[in-house]
Amino acid sequence: MRRLFPLPAPPVPSGDFPHTADTPRDGNSASVASALAAEPGAIAGTATGTDAGALSGAPDSGTAGPADSTTADSADSRTAGPADFRTAAGAGSAPAGAADFADRRWGLDELADAYAYPRLDAGAGWLRANMVSSLDGAAHHEGRSQPLSSDADMRIFGVLRGLADAVVVGAETVRKEGYRPARAREAFAARRAAAGQPPAPVIAVVTASLDLDFAQPLFTEPLVPTVVVTGAGADEDRVRTARKAGAEVVFAGEGAAVDPSRVVGALAGRGLTRLLTEGGPRLLGQFAGSGALDELCLSLAPLVVAGDASRIMNAPVTTVPETFELASVLEEAGFLFTRYRRS
């Protein structure tokens, strides 16, 4: 894989011009070389396993999906699968050098550095989405995004999970797909400990109805308590049931429905500031429409699907389209891995 954007700084001509070739550029460090030496391997996983990607909160079917924050959604979210990634880049990482553009294998730490969350003010949160799309805009093929994915896409999928404090998912996903707790992975242990994070990310379930099976492993076997995000007007009996099952209930909205614009703040108030949503198009559309989405990691597959598959976002049109700016682009085997940040 190779980096396409951002472009490297142009070299300084030799001769009468100052020689700066031996001077590291601002922000560069030895982390790239050390990462390649320390973590050259890939993360193993399968499209149908419970330990797919770097960290698995995905269900046995390998699919993740939408939320019922206001209405039910279709199961069009990200899927987990095999991984073998060779290069990466991203806004916020060290400036691109010539080596970043070569087709080479990159280490796990290097990827994690490239996709690191930005520094945040106290009490602030950052919501990142990870989705995949075909060339003609389909978010899935025959109900699943896995056919649109690739090894490199799944490598990024795992790294993004490994960096997150919480993976935000919808209740419909949990009900349909048997969502399981995220697992700790040794490859991320030191990084997470240094960042003050638990061994695995929290799974945060967005639900208006709290219509969940609290006897499922998501609530009975998590390394860290599962969070249920609902409205302050949610059914009190269901709230008590959730708490009795060990879930932490977080309110985001005054009524029974969840207010998507308040989810990030509600989770950040619990110390969960680095957020990742893989959610269905409806939930993602609600986040984007409310101005809550900060970053979109969009994988573009070199495939044409046709049919009536939904787009990566499915929600009422925004009053004024919001602008995102390109942060980085990676390429492998015709797949483009883009990062856009809200302007």
From TrEMBL:
Task: Please give the residue ranges the record annotates as the region Disordered.
Answer: 1-97
An example GO BP is:
riboflavin biosynthetic process
Q: Per its UniProt record, what InterPro entries does this chain match?
A: DHFR-like_dom_sf (IPR024072), RibDG_C (IPR002734), Riboflavin_Biosynth_HTPR (IPR050765)
Residues forming the Bacterial bifunctional deaminase-reductase C-terminal domain are: 126-312
Annotated Gene Ontology MF terms? 5-amino-6-(5-phosphoribosylamino)uracil reductase activity
Q: In which pathway does it act?
A: Cofactor biosynthesis; riboflavin biosynthesis
Q: Which UniProt keywords apply?
A: NADP, Oxidoreductase
- One matching Pfam family: RibD_C
Q: Where is there biased composition of kind Low complexity?
A: 33-58, 88-97
Its name, as the record gives it, is Bacterial bifunctional deaminase-reductase C-terminal domain-containing protein
